[in-house]
Amino acid sequence: MRKIEKFLRSLTFNIRRDKELDLNRRGFVASALSLMGIFFLSSTPLVVLSKKIEKESNEFETLIAAQGDLAVGDSVAFSYPKEHDPALLIRISETEYRAYNIKCTHLMCPVYWEKEDWKLVCPCHHGFFDVEDGSVLAGPPQRALPTINLAFKDNGIYAVSITQAQH
């Protein structure tokens, strides 16, 4: 009976002061800084990898339409940079075109071009975007639409990169 009681006490009261780690304030700060350094160094490969992926995605080029296919005020849908990223090319004057990713920045509903109002409209929550720069005119979206940069060559309009909204 004595052995069982001793065993149960060793399980219950297993704190031994002589085996505790002696950690004072300086030791705690040094440990915390070391741990932060390890986390910083271990995240470096991920940062390099994300930069590489971003650079690769910007190098992709897609033919959208031939120059002159669209009348002023018309639009054409396309996908950029991947197949499941809907985008819209709009001709706003004889010489100017704009292209945007048309996932609303609020809840990713598709944005439509309303030629009569000269605005991009999100029908889900009545968000409105300016066709000139993709900025928010009204509604719940807080950020502008991502802009797709265009290049004109060989009588074609190409999507060459995408720029996330800065405003």
From TrEMBL:
In the UniProt record, does the keyword Disulfide bond occur?
Answer: yes
Under InterPro entries, the record lists: Rieske_2Fe-2S, Rieske_2Fe-2S_sf, Rieske_Fe-S_prot
Keywords from the UniProt entry:
2Fe-2S, Disulfide bond, Iron, Iron-sulfur, Membrane, Metal-binding, Transmembrane, Transmembrane helix
Question: What domain of life is recorded for the organism?
Answer: Bacteria
Ranges where the Rieske domain occurs: 73-159
Pfam families on file? Rieske
Segments spanning the bilayer are 27-49
GO terms assigned for molecular function? 2 iron, 2 sulfur cluster binding; metal ion binding; monooxygenase activity; oxidoreductase activity, acting on paired donors, with incorporation or reduction of molecular oxygen
Protein's UniProt keywords contain Flavoprotein: no
PANTHER family in alphabetical order: CYTOCHROME B-C1 COMPLEX SUBUNIT RIESKE, MITOCHONDRIAL
Protein name in the entry: Rieske (2Fe-2S) protein
Organism classification: Bacteria, Bacillati, Bacillota, Bacilli, Bacillales
